[in-house]
């Protein structure tokens, strides 16, 4: 009974981590590139199946290389330090900042759309509100761990309320006979010509909504009984998420024509206005709560990933420091955020899938290099091969359809190669180099008031220790700054 309860808890947490803001922004991008309602539904189902296959491959890697850090740890161990660093580098420069920008722009879309019922909100207003959201939540994450986790807990309810309403109203619409665009005779009516490159982009748009499927691989070391709970979470949570996403998209199309959906920048708002009448305000409020919490969650988790990378020595040591009293990783909470939401999704989707494929290829390489290695979970090699075939299709045709967007992502990734060789691989650097780096680090430490942490659980602080201002059990021993100055 206890095992069942634990397994269900893991499944619920995994489902909650996958279901996020993507379902409120991706439907328009998926439909636009799929060219018909029927193909869009097929894309949502297929993306769910491919996500499940990828998760199975990651499950084997997760228990074979039982390190927290997910694909960063697997790529680093299988292909070496350079490959692992490039995964971390692209996460720092592209993946997390872009994810946060997309979710923040979705938040501002759903806040402003009701104020502009007859037209689209102005771009300047969208970007300004997105920037305010990011700056405010960056401040929250810098100020207090407890505040950040409270924001996450409170605002998670938003997405559950919004999706529950959408699916229930969709069922009511189908029962009333409003399913014209779901009938096979009409579902495949095209509003633009089919194009294999655009369909590949449709998969990238859909994959954004499934982001978070590899979350458990980032906490494998902390997961209780991973040999049982990891596959259990995959077999239950991903089909549930796929069901929710498919039915949410079917619900959208029972209230709107494809043209109406494509004309809306806030699909759930338009859906609510069509069906909820005077209560339509519930929908933008719920989605805004969901996306606000989504930005906060992305800021929180990204800072911890980069913190781990810095402690491994693959990012500047400054990023492994925390505030002297608030115990938050302040240097990690500042990123660059670019504009244009659907281009951003293609941008981050391409880079994400690039490394998903490299990681799954690593599973096959590990089977060849270490055939006798202990594998508590061992899947058939048919699954990684299927995943890699789909991966090759997606990357080739995405690059063909969006050569500039995908090319920029690849170029940014390759800038990490000289950084790796100069910063990590080259060990015998001149003394002047270390002096300059130490001075820059020391200056940044003074500006951000951060030091290297020395975590000691359940011990009272000494003269050079301070408690977390939120009253947590961890005591932070504040040792020395970069130049040896005691704090």
Order of helices and strands: HHHHHHHHHHHHHEHHHHHEEEE
Number of strands: 5
Task: Tell me the fraction of residues in β-strands, as a range.
Answer: under 5%
> Termini separation (Å)?
50 Å
Number of helices: 18
Mean pLDDT, to the nearest integer, reads 77
Q: Rg to the nearest angstrom? A: 23 Å
| Low-pLDDT residue spans | 330-339, 455-487
| Structural category | mainly alpha
Count of domains: 1
Strand order of the largest sheet: 3-5-4
Protein name: Solute carrier family 7 member 8b
InterPro entries: AA/rel_permease1, AminoAcid_Transporter
Biased composition (Basic and acidic residues): 459-473
Region (Disordered): 459-487
What report would you give on this structure?
By secondary structure, the chain is mainly alpha-helical. It has one domain: Amino acid/polyamine transporter I (Up-down Bundle). 68% of the residues lie in helices and 3% in strands. The chain is built from 18 helices and five strands. A three-stranded antiparallel beta sheet has the order 3-5-4, with no helix packed on it. Helix 5 packs across helix 6 and helix 7 crosses helix 10 (226-255). Residues 459-487 are annotated as: Disordered. Keywords: Amino-acid transport, Cell membrane, Disulfide bond, Membrane, Signal, Transmembrane, Transmembrane helix, Transport.
Write the layout of secondary structure elements.
Elements lengths: L1 H17 L3 H13 L2 H28 L6 H9 L1 H32 L10 H21 L1 H31 L8 H4 L8 H14 L16 H30 L2 H6 L3 H9 L6 H30 L10 E2 L17 H29 L12 H20 L1 H12 L1 H10 L5 H18 L1 E2 L1 E5 L7 E3 L6 E5 L9
Antiparallel strand pairs: 1-2, 3-5, 4-5
Helix pairs in contact: 1-10, 2-3, 2-9, 3-9, 3-10, 3-14, 3-15, 4-5, 4-14, 5-6, 5-13, 5-14, 5-16, 5-17, 6-13, 7-10, 7-13, 9-14, 9-15, 12-13, 14-15, 14-16, 15-16
